[in-house]
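I had to read the description of the data format several times before I understood it. In essence, backbone conformation is discretised, so a fold becomes a row of integers matching the chain in length. I therefore recommend that a typical entry be quoted early in the introduction. For illustration, here is how one protein appears when written out as sequence plus structure tokens.

***
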Amino acid sequence: MSINGPDLDRAARYRSRMMSVPGFSLYRGVHPQGTELPKHAHDDPTLCYVLRGRFTEYVGGQAVDCVSDSLKVTPAGETHWNRFGTSETHGLRIDVDRGRFADSRAIYQMLDERMHVSGAHAGSIVNRLLAELDAGDESAAIAVEGLLLELLATLARDSEPASPADMPRWLREADDMIRELYPSKIALSGVARAVGVAPATLARSYRSAFRITVGERIRQLRIERAVRDLLESEEPLSSVALRAGFYDQSHFTNLFRRRFGVTPAQYRLAANRRVS
């Protein structure tokens, strides 16, 4: 079951509407440590920027770790639920009227896709946005609208990965190899040797094309595999860890806890409670 409107607002300690400008509504909220936001969906696409604290969002069998100075885009109607970390979490939520951007293909499509980026992409714009909200003078609304449009344009540009046609063949082969072999012992140097380039060339080109490092991709794939197995099977944690490519259960548990703030066992238990 999804919740929205007043029920969703009551799940936070407080949520206040900061400002509405054409196409956007801005809210600021605080969630107490260790709390959960039940399954819910938003009527409009939302941008959520974590000002302080952290939370984990669970959607479609995946878990996304949202830390301070990161921003996520959630499409309209997408059901998800959230668990907040060991400290109070402060966030800025921006509801977007997607219809306003029907004539801007890049932004319109971007608002219908999940996205999670670090503050390096959006932090400076959000900081200027907060300053204008605090100023609250007669020019603030115009400035806020301009900054929100700049933010969407920045996200739309950053969401466009390199076209496969523009990538060298060896880079496509390297990505295919990583996606196939991630559960095994795989190293940057081995992939580079297999496709015939220097490790430094592979590292630089891969990050430029996919906006993620080779090591981050491997960890991402392993965590995503582990999350699927935790949700879809009753296999022991040791089997889940080894199948996903972790050295052992201890290594898996430590990495999982650092990313999501809970152990794999706690994650599975909470997910099962949500289903029941």
About this structure: The radius of gyration is 20 Å.
